Amino acid sequence: MKYAVLAPVAAGVTADPQWIGRYARHAEACGFESISVVEHTVVAAGYTSTYPYDASGRMDLADDLDIPDPLDLLAFLAGCTSRIGLATGVLVLPNHHPVVLAKRAATVDRLSGGRLRLTVGMGWMREEVEACGADFATRGRRADEQIQVMRKLWADTAPHGADHEGEFFRFKNAMSYPKPARAGGVPIHIGGHSRAAARRAGRHGDGIQPLGVTGEALRDLLKLMREEAELAGRDPDALEVTLGHSLARITPEKAQRLAELGADRIVLQPTPTRDLERALEELSACAQRLGLTAP
User: Which segments of the chain have a pLDDT < 50?
Assistant: First the structure.
């Protein structure tokens, strides 16, 4: 099992370089596989969109909370660390032009020595997606094409470059360098709770991170992802499954139950606190419970 930790965005500390830099270094020293960061390019004050992961329809983050750009934050953390994986969880794909995103992701991956993992979602906040210039209703089709575009630009297409002619994006002879550190490009995992997310993961992704889905609904999503992978001529066993849990409450027994559901990785959500020493102690205690290498 791989254990990742979510950067404590709810505490409002992820834009504090000393705080988040020390937190990432400690997570690395404790033996966590990766650190994951969230994204909201903008949050519309008083948004009317429904947050799908809480019965209230509202996320538990303040509208004016510091939420750094995920790739810029991960580039900073890459410089603070040497081994820990660097992940988005999730990056709102419709907010980004894929040609620019391909370059930014490849740069972070190359400079970090191949440590980047992109977990992408379609976005639930209409106001945010529209503020970034994308049509909310077609964001799913657009996302499928965005993934194709990034993979084309990451591939070795010298000396003539990559071509693409799609519904949303088109270019010819595009040379995008540097390439990612890994020959297959940056892994792209699909985050979400819908059947469309599971189909997208099976057809185009390297894995899935189901959000807010448990029990039989989770089993159905994973089954659908594998079926879609097979239909697309892909190996379903090569797709990773990332599930979530609490950093304070995870135990080896709970991790085993998640493994039985199909989890390859568990992303652990920390208790929100601005007290850095308390946050570091929570990391250490979790690492000790799970048998990781804690300082």
Answer: none
